[in-house]
Amino acid sequence: MSKTPITRTLRNGTNSSTKPSEITPTKRKRAAKPKISSKNKGESGGIEDIEDLLKFNEEEIAEIRGSLLEWYDKNKRDLPWRRLKDDDDGGERKAYGVWVSEVMLQQTRVATVIDYFNRWMLKWPSLYHLSLASLEEVNEMWAGLGYYRRARYLLEGAKKVIEEGGSFPRTVSSLRKVPGIGDYTSGAIASIAFNEAVPVVDGNVVRVLARLKAIYANPKDSVTVKKFWSLAGQLVDPYRPGEFNQALMELGATLCTPTSPSCSECPVSVQCQALTLSRQGGLVTDYPLKVVKAKQRNEFSAVCFLEISESQNLVEDTQKTRRYLLVKRPNEGLLAGLWEFPSVLLGQESEITIRRKEIDKFLKASFNLDAKKTFKVISREEVGEYVHIFSHIRLKMYVEYLIIHLKGGSKLLQSAPDEGSMIWKCADSKELSSMGLTSGVKKVYTMVQQFKENSLTAAPTQDTKQTKSKNSLTAATQDTKQTRQRKKR
């Protein structure tokens, strides 16, 4: 049932029928709800600036700070990055740990991050140790977390800080100068590790603030984002900024969830305007506005799991004689600098003949591999299809398993044309299984291994038939010989 919008007089003398704390002119398709609860309206219908609706009064600020910190102290999750202490190094190890954890937690669940964080800190316990690592080592450690650019920025940032003297930046302004550190991460490090009274705003914080002030607006809009940062800045506790920021994020992650908020357990439910409006027929989950995600584009790729064998046929082929070709992606773009099996993007879904033709062209241009001149095809089989989902891409991969024997030996690959940024290597099965491969590449590897196992399972059946045939032939030959010997006698 629709509600009649509240009409109020603004300071410029005009009347305005408003919806709940709209920051941008985004209109709702559903019935309008009152902008604020009745207790926030002037009893005498007094003049009110719309900007005042986007501010917390002193009483609200005090109540929210006290209630939220008390709740956090009793209910916060025990997480490894929260156990880091301010050591004699002035909090730099804690700052480093906060940085690593916050970067890992972007787009990744807490439960997944814990093990990665512990392994990371064990291998690189300080900024200095991380600065000595290679990008390949970092990518291997990061494998499975996705969004690999985050790992590269961590490494680049560590190297920059060490090169400039090794002292960890302690303020938001200085942290922003480090590669890969933006507004959110700088605020988290500065407040949690160095007690600077600055806000942080992530998805959880946006949701909490939108419900506290009943803000129905696009949370991705730049103007709206600035308003959320302003609101968070009003609330941050000057004495315990780090704990308060973590409490606000914790509330969004555990109670004020997107679809099933636990309002009865919320420490700031009294100040929540969305909850007040829900008692008049609305829903707390109406806030903030649900933004329709951009549709993923479809892409198609032919992937070649290329095995190079020293043997010329499958009978002589052994595990020791096999090598697998890997190529490194460019240093910019999707999955930058990561290893994968040779692959070619296709313009559309394609038949096997077209896919093989494109793979052959790629192998010839990149590695001087020509089936007519430089190698012999031992086996070429279709393994299957696999769809890998990125945030903005739906990639369908057609996987084939190609075994070749180089006519000029393994040195032939050394004579491949110079492709500039093309970096490749051959790895044996042991090295391949221990590499930090992306989840998509791991899936391809697993598909091929399963294909090989199924092939081996089917092979004995054929061998058994051949053996029985040979045994029958041998027995028949022996019977014929014995018959001849009897006739001679």
From TrEMBL:
HhH-GPD domain location: 104-254
Entry cofactors: [4Fe-4S] cluster
GO cellular component, one term: mitochondrion
Region entry Disordered, spans: 1-46, 456-489
Keyword entries, A-Z: 4Fe-4S, DNA damage, DNA repair, Glycosidase, Hydrolase, Iron, Iron-sulfur, Metal-binding
Residue ranges, compositional bias (Polar residues): 1-24, 456-480
One Pfam family per UniProt: NUDIX_4
Protein name: Adenine DNA glycosylase
Organism expressing this protein natively: Spinacia oleracea (Spinach)
